Amino acid sequence: MGHVDVNRAGIVGAVILAGWHMAWSVLVAAGMGQRVMDFVYRLHSLKSDAVVQSFDPAMAGLLLLLTAGLGYLLGAGTAAMWNCLNPVCERGKTGSALRV
User: Which residue range is the domain that position 48 belongs to?
Assistant: First the structure.
C-alpha cells in the first residue's frame, strides 16, 4: 500500500470516533443510556454502580468536539507513521536484509 493522505485519514478518524459518541449521546437523550450501559456491563461480566446522568446538550456537544479532535489526531498520526514507515516496508520487498 502506498502513501496515505494524512488529512483524509484524520477526517475519517474524527468521523468514526465522533459518530460513535453521537450514537451514545442519542441513546442518553432518548433515555436508553442506562439500560444499554447495564447490558454492556453484563456482557463483560462486570458490575458497576455507575449511573447515566440526564442529557445535557452542552456536555454532549463538548463530548463530540473532544472526540472528533482526538479521532483526527489518531487518524492523522497513524497515517503519518504509516507514511514514515512505508519506505522501510518497500525496501524489504526489494530484497534487502530488512524485512517488516
Answer: 6-93
Cβ-based neighbour number of residue 82 at 10 Å: 16
Residue 99 lies in a domain: no
CB 72 within 8 Å of CB 10 = yes
Q: What's the pLDDT tens digit per position in 3-45?
A: 899 999 999 999 999 999 999 999 999 999 999 999 999 999 9
What Cα–Cα distance (Å) separates residue 63 from each residue in 16, 21, 28, 34? 14, 7, 13, 18
Contact call for residues 97 and 43 (beta carbons, < 8 A): no
